[in-house]
Amino acid sequence: MSGWKARRFWTEARAAPAAGGGWEVLLDGRPVRTPAKARLVLPTPALAEAVAAEWAAQGQEIAAHAMPLTRAANAAIDKVRPGRAAVVAMLAAYGETDLVCHRAEAPAELVRRQAGAWDPLLAWCAEALGAPLVPTTGVMPKPQPPASLAALRAALEALDDFELTAAHDLVSLPGSIVIGLAAVRGHGEIEALWQASRIDEAWQQELWGEDAEAAEVAGRRRADFHAAARFLALARGHG
Questions:
Q1: Whole-structure pTM over 0.90, yes or no?
Q2: Domain extents for the chain?
Q3: In CATH, what number does 13-66 get?
Q4: Which of 100, 116, 119, 99 is nearest to 108 (CA)?
Q5: Burial 61-75 (b: 16+ CB within 10 A, else e)
Q6: pLDDT by residue (tens digit) across 61-108?
Q7: Are the C-beta atoms of residues 175 and 197 closer than 8 Å to each other?
Q8: What is the pLDDT of residue 182?
Q9: Based on the number of CB atoms within 10 Å of its own CB, is 175 exposed (0-12), middle (13-18) or buried (19 or more)?
């Protein structure tokens, strides 16, 4: 027996100004609500238009996986807004064991690649965020300066709910608050930042060849990273 699937019930999806400020998406004149039944009020017309386009593009059966902007907007309102402190704390903790601080001792070529990709990011983090971090080798992490961890946390706290929602994926997918905040601050191209997070995986692939299943997972994670960057841009009013 096939499972129940939600079916399209509207003809027109469009963006419109919301009462009290912001923008919303109307389905045949009725406003969309989040899974928690809150009003889906969006911060910019650019994001509202893009979310409306996701609804307009649906077929007769609703495919939630094809609506990443809608899902992210729902998360911003239903999860991030009421749980900001927990989200900030979780993301800030990446600074204690950040990917770009954990370096290989050998072979020399991997050490060179890590330094080439990650040293400039650490320099940017120290200068732009006031958060110098210390790279280390070996299994055990090295304690990071408390003032630097506080500065990284402050950078997260300065984000609004929609920006913080994007930051969740931009930090957690690469496993690096440095890379995530570089994406949030517009430091570097998004694809270059993603590739910087894949130095170790690319090295292993060169040594042992590509694993099809691992490549599929990596492809999905890359797509999610780019989707988070697009959500951030739209939430800031950029098309």
A1: yes
A2: 13-66, 84-235
A3: 3.30.2180.10
A4: 116
A5: eeeeeebbbbbbbbb
A6: 888 888 999 999 999 999 999 999 999 999 999 999 999 999 999 999
A7: yes
A8: 98
A9: middle
Q: Are 157 and 96 in contact (CB under 8 A)?
A: no
Cα gap 39→34, rounded to integer Å: 6
What is 84-235's CATH superfamily? ATP12 ATPase (1.10.3580.10)
Q: What is the pLDDT of residue 5?
A: 58
Amino acid (one-letter) located at 175: G
Q: How many angstroms separate the first and last alpha carbons of the chain?
A: 43
Chain segment 135-158, per-residue pLDDT in tens: 999 777 789 999 999 999 999 999
Please state whether 118 falls in left (phi above 0), alpha (psi between -120 and 50) or beta.
alpha
Residue 112 phi/psi, 5-degree rounding, is: -65, -45
Q: Are strands 13-17 and 23-27 parallel, antiparallel or unpaired?
A: antiparallel
Number of Cβ within 10 Å of residue 181's Cβ equals 26
